[in-house]
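quick one: NDP bound model?
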Amino acid sequence: MKPVKIGILGLGTVGGGAVNVLKRNAGEIARRAGREIIVSRASARDLTRTRICDTAHIALSADPFEIVNDPDIDVVVELMGGYEPAKQLVLTAIANGKHVVTANKALIALHGNEIFAEAGKKGVMVLFEAAVAGGIPIIKAIREGLAGNRIEWLAGIINGTGNFILSEMRDKGRDFADVLAEAQALGYAEADPTFDIEGIDAGHKLTILASIAFGIPLQFDKVYTEGITRITRADVEYAEALGYRIKHLGMARKTTQGIELRVHPTLIPKRRLIANVDGVMNAVLVCGDAVGPTLYYGAGAGAEPTASAVVADLVDVVRAMTSDPENRVPHLAFQPDAIVDIPVLPAEAIRTAYYLRLTAEDRPGVLADISRILAAHHISIEALIQKEPLAGQSSVPIIMLTQLTLEKEMNAAIAEIEDLATVSGAVNRIRLETLG
Ligand code: NDP
Ligand code: HSE
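yep, here:
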């Protein structure tokens, strides 16, 4: 059968990795897809730059629009990143009747609803396995493997850069900035690394996971997002002493009121497998009503792990090319006319437990004042540590774990505690999930 010709937009970490995997495993890939897949064209900004892949037999272009408008290209693989021109390129490819594979979570999270609607009209596929959790086939697992379940919740370490930074800081005592620079050099970080460290990238991925898990539209603007920049070494050590690890987690949970969508640092019991996922590795826990909790683990970033997901999508596209569009797996797991707009809850409606750290005067009555405020907001204390005052100081760090409470009550309690004359500075709060 005639080979399938693909055009790759972007020859950086993922694009280069994809070219290498397609070349090295060409025989196995063709045996699976039923046809040979040829990288016929590729684009990059700087055509003089040395690449991690061999481009000898690829027609290169500095203008990606030439590729999406080339009638000879069957599938466009968008690996440039960013919103524009990626969005225009993908929409043009779709308008030209081409299937699309992308690793661009920012694009899917913000513009996926429009892109899938256009793809539906033209009867083409847009696949995006590499957009979430790098090499872990998590989209396929939820969309197809768990299709018999009502998904109840999912929680994941879904940013490799952030997990790499937290692991290196905890295990080797390294500086935040140093580890971030290494993650950039290794090709893990986004073009704008604030996306990684401020939780935006994880928010994009959670948006996609929630959509395919619950059959809701993609709605990144409703995700509560907090990054890792405010985690201190002291918090990491206190959490360890209490039997927890701090991980940056994306959580999506369906409750009777609506859906919680949140990304933030989280204390997780050390005994949970996911608490022991370190470095650039990612892991996603998905709980279905029939299957119970399931865990998916693997490299969350990097050239070849991500290429593994891109190539798997390409094989799926090639296998499905001759099928009728209505017989294909829907882009967002649910049939387009069955997507339901279940409300996403505001941050104040989140129910979770908390780790609190504050600095207070070391004298009688101070703890009683704090306990009174918490009790008035229906917040029960689960554990409490009061450290020795440092030499020459009259204040002490107090660390508390609370039971489950409403975020709104916690916000009010924290404001009152910070107003106490005996408490100095801000109360540092980290959410806690047992993931049981
Ligand atoms: P890189 O920055 O390494 O590569 C981007 C490529 O796109 C480069 O070849 C660049 O050209 C080209 N490019 C960028 N902007 C333009 C433009 N305006 N016009 C033409 N070409 C352009 O990015 P990555 O490979 O790391 O990431 C690509 C995508 O994959 C992103 O969406 C990212 O979020 C996603 N992703 C990345 C992972 C990773 O581990 N890196 C993992 C999972 C997903 P040039 O080389 O000349 O600058
Ligand atoms: N910057 C992303 C990360 C790439 O570190 O997880 C993979 O999506």
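The CA atoms of residues 92 and 434 lie 46 Å apart.
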